[in-house]
Amino acid sequence: MAESSTSTSAAPVQPEGTYSLEQMKEHNTRESLWMLLHDKVYDITAFMDEHPGGDEVLIEEAGRDATEAFEDVGHSDEAREMLPKMLLGDFYGEKKSKSKKSLTSADGSSTSSGFPIWVVPVALVAAFLAWRVFLA
Length: 136
Ligand code: HEM
Known about the structure:
Flavocytochrome B2, Chain A, domain 1, elongated, Cyt_B5-like_heme/steroid-bd, alpha+beta, binds protoporphyrin IX containing FE, transmembrane helix
């Protein structure tokens, strides 16, 4: 009557070929260096000596999300084409949120994202008036 082989999986199972932040943190040394870029996990251990930007910057970003640092540098297409060779798999779970960021976006909500939209008609009117003044 009682079935012992019932598989009720309560906890979510981490899919094969995915890596969590916990796992990544174990690979934050020169001997084994993993990095998260755009939600993909890369093993860049062998690339460290070849990196034109040096190994120090890579070690600094080891075992965590390096997307921002990678994009800040403005890496070329050539650099991006190197990535598939180092791909380990997908990222699993949650990334650590950077609490520092909330300070800048907490207030002054409209000023941080470029210029406000009303600048466009005002600029057009100003340009028109300037044109009239120069014609007169
Ligand atoms: C696996 C990931 C990475 C790859 C494949 C890679 C590849 C490259 C390549 C090919 C260049 C030469 C310039 C270019 O083509 O854009 C470069 C430059 C550079 N990289 Fe990376 N990079 C990686 C990660 C990073 C990270 C996480 C940082 C952290 C800040 C970084 C910092 C730099 C810097 C500062 C330079 C400029 C070096 C210079 O011009 O003096 N890179 N990288």
